[in-house]
Design a protein that fits this description.
Number of strands of chain A: 7
Number of helices of chain B: 8
Low-confidence stretches of chain A: 1-10, 308-314
Number of helices of chain A: 10
Structural class of chain B: alpha/beta
Strand content of chain B: 25-35%
Mean pLDDT of chain B: 84
Oligomer: heterodimer
CATH class of the largest domain in chain B: Alpha Beta
Mean pLDDT of chain A: 83
Strand order of the largest sheet of chain B: 2-1-3-4-5
Low-confidence stretches of chain B: none
Helix content of chain B: 25-40%
Largest sheet of chain A: 5 strands, mixed
Radius of gyration of chain B: 21 Å
Strand order of the largest sheet of chain A: 2-4-5-7-6
Largest interface: A-B, 29 and 30 residues
Chain lengths: 353, 248
């Protein structure tokens, strides 16, 4: 009974709850009629007493539940609920006493019995109302938990979706499949180099997957990750691609959010390689002062090929977005094009004292 | 002996094609090219029976390179290109190899080519369709690759003043010159950014940024005056659609 009622409340509308009360009420009315008859009351008087008591109790329970729906007494403190139940029980007793006196004014012996049985009725009603209060409280608790769980699931789903998008952005399928193709070519003629490249690609991918975007890492770690990527690109484009890195040792301790540098360099290499048919040189320079780490990446640029590209137009917008989310600033990534050189400048605030 | 040209900007990617071809008889690789420029030259010089072609290459991509040829040889694409392009292929492809590809897959493509050899014309038509579909979704929307004699030029669409129909070709007019291109007016009407280009006549598409005035010529006939001073006739529907477009 309790459990099914709990479930009903959970799933059904007030109409269903009302129906439940009616069935419940009729049941108890019959029981009470029988009990009162056994206590030497007339059938008619016993039935009227049982009807009035139970209808009144059912009405008060129902009212209490409806009220709880909109107002939770005591917000969290359980004892207030019982005080509330106690109050309703008092009301019940007063109304019951008055109503029965009004309906059956001539049944003196019955009214005497009623007076004597009042404490008993009080205790019974209080138990039932407390029980309803408790049920209601548990129901609300369950509902809250369920809602909380739903919210949590939703949030987790959002995070997952974001991660997927992130992965898709970072693991450029083009890069991955072309690298695998190079490995496939090497596997035939130079198996040792193929094995080495598999190693590099694995290390690079692992590094990409492992990194927590919220953490800030030493610049040296980012450079190591970048170098894995550059090794792979050199296998693919060694005949055209030259890279010059100019980073002083002490800068390696500066900090940078992970996976910012590699996409910028990837971008530079891509637009360098595909923008011109000549050999290209990509420069990576880094320096720092106490408050900032500065990184500049330069690649050759052919205005003719990219003539129509608008704005930065170089696929750097997701990095711009990340920097904004991390630092709330839009001036940390800048680009500049001269006749033949495209520069990407990155400025990372150093949070350490 | 079948002559083959391999065009790919990654040497290792070319080497795997060569390796797979070694077990084939009656096949000779006549040229290996690093990019589309070399590719055009090699194809004109050798007139190969088959071309293995990458899509993403320096300056001009594989599709743009093919556009520059008067007769397009049979092509098997070898590319790591993602879904987008694949969809374009699927309808019309001769064949395409997704990198990395197995030797079995490679041989299957080759067999497909050999059995289709007699239907060259059909091949051409399919490829033309493929070209028309493919470059709508890449950065070629922003540029047009043209070839005058042996010189290849990339024209940013912003530099195009207007386009005029010319038999089977179109003339693409820029500031100082024009370029011939074997495409249709409908093609450019569809491909070019409608915010920038507008077809005002069966034979004319204009760059709206070049438009200065619309002048009446006779009763019920109008011309568009460009900044360069060029006068472009407007067809009757062209005139009313242009008015609507400009909000007058």
């Amino acid at each position: 009974m309790h459990k099914s009622l709990l479930k009903n409340q959970f799933q059904y509308s007030p109409k269903k709850i009302l129906l439940g009360f009616i069935v419940w009420g009729i049941f108890w009315t019959l029981i009470q009629t029988l009990v009162l008859h056994r206590l030497d009351l007339e059938w008619k008087v016993a039935f009227i007493d049982a009807c009035v008591s139970n209808v009144l109790l059912a009405l008060l329970c129902y009212t209490a539940i409806i009220i709880y729906r909109f107002y939770q007494p005591g917000n969290g403190n359980r004892f207030y609920r019982f005080i509330y139940a106690f109050g309703i029980t008092m009301l019940y007793c007063v109304v019951l006493h008055w109503t029965l006196n009004w309906i059956l004014p001539s049944e003196i012996s019955y009214l005497d019995f009623l007076n004597r049985s009042m404490p008993c009725r009080f205790v019974g009603a209080f138990l039932i109302l407390s029980f309803v209060t408790l049920l209601n409280w548990m129901w609300n608790l369950l509902k809250d938990q369920k809602e909380q769980e739903e919210r949590r699931n939703e949030a987790e789903q959002l995070v997952k979706d974001a991660e997927l998008v992130k992965l898709r952005q970072q693991l450029q399928p083009h890069f991955l499949f072309n690298s695998l193709n190079s490995i496939s070519a090497l596997a035939g003629s130079k198996p040792d180099e193929a094995r080495q490249m598999i190693q590099q690609l694995s290390d690079f991918l692992r590094g990409t997957l492992k990194k927590d975007e919220q953490k800030i890492v030493p610049f040296g770690e980012e450079m190591a990750h970048l170098k894995l990527y550059l090794e792979i690109e050199k296998v693919r484009f060694g005949h055209r691609l030259n890279i010059e890195i100019n980073v002083a040792k002490e800068i390696l301790n500066a900090t940078i959010p992970p996976l910012l540098l590699q996409p910028i360099v990837e971008n530079a290499i891509k637009f360098g390689l595909y923008g011109t048919i000549e050999d290209i040189l990509v420069n990576i320079d880094a320096k720092s002062d106490p408050s900032y780490l500065f990184v500049e990446v330069k690649n050759p640029y052919d205005a003719q090929t990219h003539g129509a590209a608008k704005g930065t137009g170089f696929g750097l917008s997701s990095i711009q977005r990340r920097l904004f989310l991390l630092y709330g600033r839009n001036d940390l990534l800048t680009t500049e094009k001269s006749e033949t050189i495209f520069s990407t400048r990155l400025k990372i605030p150093q949070l350490k004292a | 002996m079948k002559k083959i040209v391999i065009i790919d900007d990654e040497p290792l990617a070319r080497s795997i094609v060569i390796e797979y071809l070694q077990s084939q008889q009656d096949i000779e690789v006549v040229a290996e090219c690093n990019n589309g420029y070399e590719g055009v030259k090699a194809i004109i010089q050798h007139k190969p029976d088959l071309v293995f072609l990458d899509i993403q290459m320096p300056k001009i991509n594989g599709f743009e390179m093919l556009e520059l040829l008067d007769t397009i040889p049979p092509v098997i694409f070898a590319t790591a290109f993602d879904e987008f392009a694949i969809k374009a292929f699927e309808a019309n492809a001769i064949d395409y190899l997704l990198k990395p590809f197995s030797k079995e897959r490679f041989n299957a493509a080759l067999t497909k080519f050999l059995s289709k050899k007699t239907e060259d014309r059909e091949l051409d038509k399919n490829l033309q369709k493929l070209l028309d579909n493919s470059d709508k979704q890449t950065d070629e929307k922003n540029r047009i690759v043209v070839k005058n004699n042996s010189e290849i030029t990339i024209v940013p669409v912003n530099d195009v003043f207007y386009i005029e129909a010319y038999d089977d070709y179109v003339k693409i007019f820029t500031k100082d010159t024009y370029h011939l291109k074997k495409k249709t007016m409908n093609y450019y009407e569809e491909v070019l950014d409608p915010a920038l280009f507008f077809r005002v006549h069966r034979s004319f598409i204009i760059n709206l940024q070049q438009l200065t005035r619309i002048e009446p010529l006779e009763k019920n006939s109008y011309i568009a005056l460009l900044k360069s001073g060029k006068k472009i006739p407007l067809s009757r529907p062209g005139y009313s659609k242009l008015k609507e477009k400009l909000g007058i």
